Amino acid sequence: MRFDLTDLQLFTHIAEAGSITGGAERSHITLASASQRVRGMEDALGTPLLLRARRGAEPTEAGRTLLHHARLVLQQMERLRGELGDHRGPGHQGAGLRGHIRMWCNTSAMTEHLPEALGTFLKQHPRVSVELEERPSGDIVEAVHAGQCDIGIVSDAVDVQGLRHFVFCRDDLVLVTPRGHALAKRRRVTLAEFTSQAFVGLPAGSPLQEHVAQHARRLGQRLVYRVRVGSFEAVCALVAQGIGVGIVPRAAADRCAATRPIARITLAEPWAARHLLLCVRDEAALPLHARRLLEHLSMPAQADIP
């Protein structure tokens, strides 16, 4: 049985993409080459590794075993590259061996909080690359548990039990209204005071929107959406035109208020005062560059939250 690192990386990409086609694209190889490599692995093991269907492929029991060990091997290789890089002198041709970090984050982190901090890190580490994906917080927690990504950034509304987690940043939610709205001059409001208003919301299934709707249901109320749009910017743009009110992270509201006539009102609700959390399975087991990024993103002097 002889698998190379390309085989192992390809198989993890297929499992994560849910298809051989998607895995081939992520691995930057042709579909024919990917299919041939998978057949070669199956022939070597004498058992199928994938259940193939018209809509994609998923690992068999043997495939799941291979996937688990493939992730361990690839993670160990990343650690090796990072640690060897520290032993090369600055003038050596191989100095600063390339590192690769897999990170998943939620929408608020991706659009509002992460770009500047990540950019600073990448400038300081020019041979490090980051594979960044935007996913719902619940999916990110599962991915970190499964080893699909090195670091996740999630809302503190999700259960991160079993993971090491650290504060990344504050991410409070606020109500946004047109400047001439009846609530626009208020400093604080409760959810119960505006559940009867027409809402500009995010798409159905959006974790943030479901979070707000859940708290409205606890009040015996049902939010009425006049329109649902795909971004915080779009919510604020429509609110500015008087279409309705919306709930977005304060960072997004502050940015949009610089160019649009919207008011930002603090939500006097415990669930609206939230943090984004960095989560990992075990920081000591992370590749060196991923550990450095975790340290870079963690709020100073913040211990992990119980």
Mean pLDDT: 87
Q: Per DSSP, what share of the residues sits in E-state strands of 2 or more residues?
A: 15-25%
The coarse silhouette is elongated
Helix residue percentage: 40-55%
CATH superfamily of the domain at 173-272: Periplasmic binding protein-like II
Radius of gyration: 23 Å
CATH architecture of the domain at 173-272: 3-Layer(aba) Sandwich
CATH class category of the domain at 173-272: Alpha Beta
Largest sheet: 5 strands, mixed
CATH topology of the domain at 173-272: D-Maltodextrin-Binding Protein, domain 2
Give the N-to-C terminal Cα separation.
44 Å
Which helices and strands appear, and what pairs or packs with what?
Elements: H1 5-17, H2 20-27, H3 31-45, E1 50-53, E2 56-59, H4 61-85, E3 99-105, H5 107-124, E4 128-134, H6 137-146, E5 151-155, E6 164-170, E7 173-178, E8 188-189, E9 198-201, H7 207-218, E10 224-228, H8 232-240, E11 246-249, H9 250-257, E12 262-267, E13 275-280, H10 288-297
Parallel strand pairs: 3-4, 3-5, 8-12, 9-10
Antiparallel strand pairs: 1-2, 5-13, 6-13, 7-11, 7-12
Helix pairs in contact: 1-2, 1-4, 2-3, 8-9
